[in-house]
Amino acid sequence: DTEVTQTPKHLVMGMTNKKSLKCEQHMGHRAMYWYKQKAKKPPELMFVYSYEKLSINESVPSRFSPECPNSSLLNLHLHALQPEDSALYLCASSQENYGYTFGSGTRLTVV
Amino acid sequence: KQEVTQIPAALSVPEGENLVLNCSFTDSAIYNLQWFRQDPGKGLTSLLLIQSSQREQTSGRLNASLDKSSGRSTLYIAASQPGDSATYLCAVTGGAQKLVFGQGTRLTINP
Fold first, then answer.
1. Is B96 on the interface with A (CB under 8 A)?
2. Per residue in B35-59, pLDDT tens?
3. Distance CA B64, CA B34 (A)
4. Distance of residue A63 Cα from the nearest chain B Cα, in angstroms
5. Does B99 touch chain A (CB under 8 A)?
6. Digits of tens for pLDDT over chain B (111 positions)?
7. Is B10 helix (H, G, I), strand (E, B) or coil?
8. Whose CA, among A21, A37, B41, B109, lies 20 to 30 Å from A103?
9. In this model, does residue A35 exceed pLDDT 80?
10. Does B30 touch chain A (CB under 8 A)?
11. Contact B97 A98 (CB under 8 A)
12. Distances from the Cα of B76 to the Cαs of A73, B103, B109, in angstroms?
């Protein structure tokens, strides 16, 4: 298995909702990432997990809460989001000398 | 701070042409350089990974080169096809598990 799987592919949520994005990989990669991408811009790093521990938080607002239940799974919990949080959310994993593998993303719309 | 620049920002060529996309980076202390392709609204697909000790990588009609000393990489696409139309992103990995992206080149291949 050489893929990163993200669910759901599309999500519409209200500003008072709580939802979660899920990411799964079975390549044995020990680093996993969340990125946010706005239209016509490159992805922006949000969080890095290394060996299931949060190693980087790029000053992301607390309404985004990451979780790494095990070495294959990564979640992003969403609460009280704003319309400007609407974006494509990408999950990725990596292993030294093997580069990064990205998922197909979740298109999030906050209404 | 590492900065990655891609030139041109957009490129439109007729089908069948060979073309070159350029990427430059400011800090030569990189581990890897990776070229990605992104179709509108989709995730990133890895095209080629060049490790810091390598000079080039090839996959099918694609060839990527790396010159660390000058801080440059090129992606050569031979015999372009309409299906090659996409945004191409160059990214470098330095320390701290951070992938630094360029702004991308939007490529259009006209039939």
1. yes
2. 999 999 999 999 999 999 999 999 9
3. 9
4. 22
5. yes
6. 899 999 999 999 999 999 999 999 999 999 899 999 999 999 999 999 999 999 999 999 999 999 999 999 999 999 999 999 999 999 999 776 789 999 999 999 999
7. strand
8. B109
9. yes
10. no
11. no
12. 36, 18, 14
Q: Does A101 touch chain B (CB under 8 A)?
A: yes
pLDDT given for residue B97 in this prediction: 75
Q: Which two tokens stand for residue B34?
A: 């990776």
Length of chain B: 111
Q: What's the alpha-carbon Rg for chain A, to the nearest Å?
A: 13
Element (H, E) at A19: strand A18-25
State the best of A21, A58, A97, A108 to mutate against chain B, taking most chain B CBs within 10 Å: A97
Cβ atoms of residues B68 and B53 within 8 Å:
no
Long-range contacts of B67-70, Cβ-Cβ distance < 8 Å, separation of 24 or more: B68/B28, B68/B30, B69/B28
